[in-house]
Design a protein that fits this description.
By secondary structure, the chain is of the alpha+beta class. The chain is 25% helix and 34% strand. The protein has eleven helices and 27 strands. The strands form seven sheets. Strands 12, 13, 14, 15, 16, 17 and 18 form a seven-stranded mixed β-sheet that branches. Strands 1-2-26-27-24 form a five-stranded antiparallel β-sheet, with helices on one face. It has a four-stranded antiparallel β-sheet with strand order 20-19-22-23, with no helix packed on it. β1 and β2 form a beta hairpin. The chain is globular.
Length: 541
């Protein structure tokens, strides 16, 4: 603070998180009349959801910026199937996000695999958005051309990555049971939003699907005794049942899972049918079995790897660690539902992702590969992507034999391809860092699934992978070294008064920006965000 007030240079490192974002920020005060040039290099793993990759850049200057320019350079070896720039996203709420395109963004197609985007809003255009200028996210959405069913391979040095996103497969019929918490804590807004979401979700079921509903508080209650084939009459009855749900009592999660798993097991003889359980709760077990480890073990014993369990944690009081472990142990995933105005849209958005299974029991085989990431997956859903990375035990072979097996809607599937490694070249270092990222992600998931007794053994793997994945940590390490440099130079930390944000985008994988100091000191913050990076400016007065 003293350095900022004196107009001298100062630095501050902070980490923050918000809905859907992870941010790492470095703040630097720039003395009056000085000029600062910064360069930030980072790599981001984009997740494909509903057939879309989305790159988001935060723009929140809290002021009109005289000369604002955002440049995005996109290159995809597979080529683009589509690309669009959405209107500035001014809210995280799904209900307030426009589906219109940003007409003032200039999109140029350099080649089939190369696009550039430039957005340079005038001061008048910024002022039209708010008195503080643009306060939102610049969103680029696209997908690539998926030419081969078996996917796309990249190789660099001793590492490979396999992107698997088959197209043209028929959607599998599914058995699905919705397990809905109607305990007292779900009263008022939560139960209202759950009813609205279920109304939309039920209408997405297809005639080939079977479904049921289990509600639970102190006891679990089935809507019907067994799974029901979808029909207009049954959907109408289910809508009526959902509309009459009332929240009261305590929370018996174990009994609800037992009821649903028993039904799924009895109906699991059909080949070529996906099977899933969707659990929605906002709390922890308060009646019946209270030991969460016992609940997890019970679910795993009943579902026996044949039925995927997806957990939705409603609000901040829920034991999300428990739900995450419960889902991961049973071939699914957990997601937090934020208790905001769009909670019903968050619920329906989740179901959109799992509504169309294309394959189950997916296995990837690569021959003699060392340190390969996860290769077995319970489900593959339409619009998603499976990404596997590995390390060759020696020099890469000239031919790379890849096999993907699984069960589809009509029969067992086996996709086989021999790739010429010489034609699979990727940017230097990229595949190794992606392998490190996926390896650490797998290890963290395994750690989340372990019991207390197993955690000691996992620590050894953590230490080993930290050594192996050192190349991935260069950016964060650079931030720490930069902070040390500031301290060694006698620069004090600042707490960041009166912060104002100004966000720019990367060009390719890096961005260089220049901010000139005026007669007063300016502070600049570099931030690593999940989507893009942030530059923060403030005036110390």
């Amino acid at each position: 603070q003293a350095a900022v007030q004196a107009g001298q240079s100062a630095g501050h490192v902070a980490q923050q998180s918000a809905r859907g974002r992870e941010m790492f920020r470095i703040a630097i005060n720039v003395g009056a009349g000085e000029k600062v040039t910064f360069q930030l290099t980072y790599q981001e793993f984009l997740v494909r959801r509903l057939g879309i990759y989305e790159h988001v850049i935060s723009i929140r200057p809290e002021q009109i910026v005289p000369d604002m320019r955002i440049g995005v350079d996109l290159r995809e070896s597979q080529g683009f199937s589509f690309l669009r720039v959405r209107d500035i996203r001014t809210s995280d709420l799904l209900t307030e996000q426009s589906t219109d395109e940003l007409s003032t963004a200039v999109v140029s197609r350099v080649s089939p695999d190369h696009y550039t985007i430039v957005y340079s809003p005038t001061e008048q255009e910024q002022a039209a958005m708010s008195a503080q200028g643009i306060m939102g996210d610049f969103v680029v959405q696209y997908d690539v051309i998926h030419q081969q069913q078996i996917g796309f391979i990249q190789v660099s040095d001793d590492y490979f990555v396999h992107y698997f996103a088959p197209t043209g497969l028929p959607v599998m019929p599914k058995n699905v049971i919705f397990v809905i918490d109607v305990s007292g804590s779900m009263r008022y807004e939560k139960i209202r939003q759950t009813k609205e979401a279920m109304g939309v979700i039920l209408d997405q079921l297809r005639e080939v699907d079977f479904f049921n509903i289990v509600t639970f508080s102190e006891r679990a209650m089935r809507w019907r005794s067994e799974l029901q084939p979808v029909s207009q009459g049954r959907l109408m009855a289910a809508h009526s049942y959902v509309s009459e749900m009332d929240a009261n009592g305590r929370t018996n999660i174990n009994e609800a899972i037992t009821e649903a798993a028993t039904m799924l097991t009895r109906a699991s003889d059909d080949i070529g049918r996906a099977s899933m359980l969707v659990l929605l709760t906002d709390g922890q077990p308060t009646v019946g079995e209270l030991n969460t480890e016992e609940i997890i073990e019970n679910a795993q014993r009943l579902l026996v790897g044949n039925h995927a369990l997806f957990c939705l944690g409603f609000g901040y009081d829920v034991s999300f660690e428990f739900l995450e472990k419960l889902a991961l142990r049973n071939g699914g995933f957990a997601r937090r539902i934020y208790p905001e105005d769009d909670a019903d849209h968050q619920l329906t958005s989740f179901f959109d992702e799992v509504a169309q299974p294309l394959m189950i029991d997916v296995n990837m085989e690569y021959g003699e590969i060392a340190d390969v990431t996860q290769t077995a997956f319970s489900n593959y859903f339409n619009g998603s992507e499976v990404v596997v990375a590995g390390r060759f035990p020696g020099a890469p072979p000239s031919n790379f034999h890849v096999t993907v097996t699984g069960m589809g809607a009509q029969s067992a599937l086996s996709l086989v391809e021999d790739f010429q490694v010489a034609s699979l070249a990727a940017p230097e270092g990229f595949v190794e860092r992606l392998w490190a990222y996926l390896t650490i992600k797998d290890l963290l998931n395994k750690e989340r699934m372990t019991t207390d007794m197993e955690q000691g053994r996992q620590l050894k793997d953590v230490r080993r992978l930290i050594v192996m994945a050192g190349t991935m940590l260069r950016t964060v390490r650079a931030c720490v070294l930069f902070r040390q440099h500031l301290r060694q130079s006698g620069i004090q930390q600042v707490d960041g008064h009166n912060l104002k944000s100004f966000t720019t985008s990367p060009v390719s994988s890096q961005h260089v920006g220049v901010i000139g100091g005026g007669n007063v000191g300016k502070a600049v913050a570099l931030g690593l965000i999940k989507h893009g990076h942030q530059v923060t400016i403030y005036d110390p007065d």
